[in-house]
Amino acid sequence: MKIKNLATIYAIVAAALYAINVPFSKMLLGYVEPTMMAAFLYLGAGLGMFVCSIVAKATRKTAPTEPLTKKELPYTIAMVVLDIIAPILLMFGIRVSNAANVSLINNFEIVATSLIALIVFKEIISKKLWTAITLVTVASVILSFEGAGSFEFNIGSLFVFGACLCWGIENNCTRMISNKSSVEIVVIKGMFSGLGSLIVGFIIGESIPAVIWVICVLLLGFVAYGLSIYFYVMAQKDLGAAKTSAYYSIAPFLGVAFGMLFLGERPAIQFYIALIVMIVSTYFMIRDTIELQHTHKHTHTHTHEHSHGDIVHTHEHAHTHTHIHVHGEDSDNHEHNHKEMSHDHLHST
Questions:
Q1: What burial letters (b/e) apply to 83-113, b meaning 16+ CB within 10 Å?
Q2: How far apart, in whole angstroms, are the C-alpha atoms of residue 160 and residue 102?
Q3: How far is it, in rounded angstroms, from Cα 166 to Cα 71?
Q4: pLDDT tens string for the chain (349 positions)?
Q5: For labelling alongside 88, which of 44, 161, 162, 271 has CA 20 to 30 A away?
Q6: Using CA atoms, how far apart are residues 194 and 171, in angstroms rounded to an integer?
């Protein structure tokens, strides 16, 4: 198999692994409380990537990377704090909202990241990206109301918007350290954000679920965030940041499909209207990203560290949604940044 064909498969696998987060989280929320869910998802990603890094070093399959220093400490702390708040809000949103809607509304992270990059870091946003941002906003508003012909606001959407705003800020923080080791960033995000969420859970009176559910959530976190980031990075080595991000853009739509498949959801008519709008917006984002790579004009850094999101929302998905959404501008040197303009996911988880 040709190297680029294999890299394309890696990119699609990364998107698919991240897409299972919302529907499977909704299923597990029947047994695990939201804050504990967020905690063990991140701990699963952090622990899993830590083990993978040890194995890679033992087998000498890892390239030398630059570790974080005291200079990056403020951004690292901000990244961790925001990654405590965002997934907790997302879990509350998933619990009371339609999983398909949540998958699409997660695209609002692009809007938050881009606007913060414009206002705070003075980045330039292209016309195509402005068009995409407008369409994502319109679709998100449509998804915020429930019932055919009804204008009853869905409170779950408000939680998801809050998560996207936090990840938008976090993506820009992760962008400042995106030249460092992507694995180290994911491990730090996962371990410290997970422990922070765990402490918050105890404070608000949530209890640790049964061991079987803890294991399930840890595995989901490792797969949806940890492995997703790993395959994203593998794809990026041969495809570059822009093309990898373009393939990764299918994640929200796969999330919708998984929600219908595993949860039997049948969204209302406004969902399908929003879906069409969101597909058009994704087209403009892909065009903007690929043209940016072809012209090599780095006037804006669409780097979504989702961290998706998400995630690792590092959405490295840096979702970068670093969701860990990190997205850098240098298409060949960006580690899995979940930032949008380059659409790299450290998905931030």
A1: bbbbbbbbbbbbbebbbbbbbbbbbbbbbbb
A2: 7
A3: 22
A4: 666 678 888 888 988 998 999 999 999 999 999 999 999 999 999 999 999 889 888 887 666 677 788 888 999 999 999 999 999 999 999 998 888 889 888 888 878 888 888 888 787 888 888 898 899 888 888 888 765 444 456 788 899 999 999 988 987 887 788 777 778 888 998 999 999 999 999 999 999 999 999 999 999 999 998 888 778 777 767 776 556 666 777 888 888 889 888 888 887 788 888 899 989 988 887 777 667 655 544 434 344 444 444 444 444 444 444 443 444 334 344 444 443 333 344 444 4
A5: 271
A6: 18
Q: Using the structure block, give the residue that is written with the tokens 């000498």.
A: 60
**Phi and psi dihedrals of 73, rounded to 5?**
-55, -45
Rounded to 10°, the helix 3-19/251-263 angle is: 50
3-state secondary structure of 7: helix
pTM as predicted: 0.77
Q: Which residue has the tokens 């498969």?
A: 9
- Give bridge partners of residue 339 from the DSSP assignment: 304, 344
Look-up of token digits 């997660």: 106
Number of H helices, E strands in the chain: 14, 2
| Identity of the amino acid at 306 | H
Nearest to residue 321, comparing CAs of 128, 29, 42? 42
